[in-house]
Design brief:
three-stranded antiparallel β-sheet, 13% strand, 2 domains, 377 residues, single chain, 41% helix
């Protein structure tokens, strides 16, 4: 099997799976219970929080566990908007954010907020100047992702935050770092963010757990009520087993990050070089994109058709974000690509488990597909 859809999800690492099983079977008490089993579960959560907070260079008390990136993004946008509504009603987001940000922003529009969607520039990035131009005295929140989940574009969030605050010093900055965390350094202080989202299942931990960084002193309203857990920011019994596994996977990712990045860079370059040798193929990711993601368009075969052709050969890739469920990519559309380029786009996303053989097998499969399948007229 050649699995190259790691931006959708990753296989759970052996150590993370072992930790989850251990907590589920040996430390299965409710973390809020006062007996020994509850204490052991609580300690597992504290250990994971310490590891992840260290990876993000933030305080442990600034980190809140959620059910994943979608909940974290929703909490950041909806929570910040309602907590600061008295001083303004304007939200700025990039037009190619993950759907959990875009849909949360659309929901805010129905609640009377003004939302401005900033499009990427020709380089595929969000321009700090474009964001700054949209900021005014009514702006309360800016949300721009660190690494785009479909093309791998890396945004200079620190510059964007600084530019926004030159126009309005009170603006809150949120960053969806789901595709960056564990792959490139994510330092909350250097990024200049007040809110930041990460997810476990992108770094070889189980699905169903994520975290939201909330800078000390930043006020946001919770989405969920009931219980004293996590200072009432995210009440409810914590998913201790998955959180503990998240901590283990995070530790592995951070320790292996430099070596993994170097390896992925070589695989990415090998793939791009091979794609450039195939007539008609267009590379949508820029040379300075995060190497973990390579997006290209065959300009000949629809994405879904290509995907299923490769799947029959045990090669797994994506036509875009898994959350889009086959709908036309709003990310590629926001880049101004033609309908043909959007409809034939493929996303390849690597992990450190991938090899040169995986890349060569994929390239062979793509060539076979283009020689076999009916072309779009």
């Amino acid at each position: 099997m050649v699995y190259l859809d790691n931006s959708a999800t990753t296989v759970v690492s052996k150590k993370a799976a072992e930790k989850a099983l251990y907590v589920m079977t040996e430390c299965f008490g409710n973390p809020s219970s006062l007996h020994t089993l509850g204490f052991k579960a609580e300690q597992e959560i504290k250990t994971a929080r310490r590891i992840i907070a260290s990876a993000l260079s933030c305080r442990e008390g600034e980190l809140f566990f959620t059910s994943g990136g979608t909940e974290s993004n929703n909490t950041a946008l909806l929570g910040a908007a309602h907590a600061h509504r008295r001083r303004g009603n304007k939200i700025i987001v990039s037009s190619y954010e993950h759907s959990s940000v875009i849909e949360a922003a659309k929901e805010l529009e129905t609640r009377g907020f003004e939302v401005v969607y900033v499009k990427p520039d020709k380089s595929g990035k969000i321009s700090p100047d474009d964001v700054a131009r949209a900021v005014d005295d009514k702006t309360i929140l800016v949300s721009v992702m660190l690494v785009n989940n479909e093309i791998g574009a890396v945004n200079d969030v620190a510059l964007i935050a600084a530019a926004a605050r030159r126009k309005n010093a009170k603006v809150l900055m949120h960053c969806d770092a789901v595709q960056a965390f564990g792959r490139i350094p994510v330092h909350t202080g250097r990024l200049g963010v007040d809110l930041l989202t990460v997810s476990a299942h992108k770094i070889h931990a189980p699905k169903g757990v994520g975290a939201l960084f909330v800078k000390k002193g930043t006020k946001i309203s919770p989405l969920i009520f009931g219980g004293e857990q996590q200072n009432k920011m995210r009440p409810g019994t914590e998913n201790a087993a998955s959180i503990a596994a998240f901590g283990v996977a995070c530790d592995e990712a951070v320790r292996n990050m430099p070596a993994a990045y170097s390896k992925i860079k070589e695989l990415s370059n090998r793939l791009v070089s091979g794609l450039k040798e195939i007539d008609g193929v267009v590379i949508n990711s820029t040379p300075d994109a995060c190497p973990y993601i390579v997006n290209f368009s065959s300009m000949a075969v629809k994405s879904e058709t290509m995907l299923h052709f490769l799947e029959e050969r045990d090669i797994y890739i994506s036509g875009g974000s898994a959350c889009a469920k086959g709908n036309r990519s709003h990310v590629l559309t926001s880049l101004g690509l033609s309908n043909l380029a959007v409809d034939t786009a493929i996303r390849v996303s690597f992990s450190a488990d991938n090899t040169e053989s995986d890349v060569d097998t994929l390239l062979g499969g793509i060539k076979d597909a283009l020689n076999t399948l009916q072309k779009i007229k």
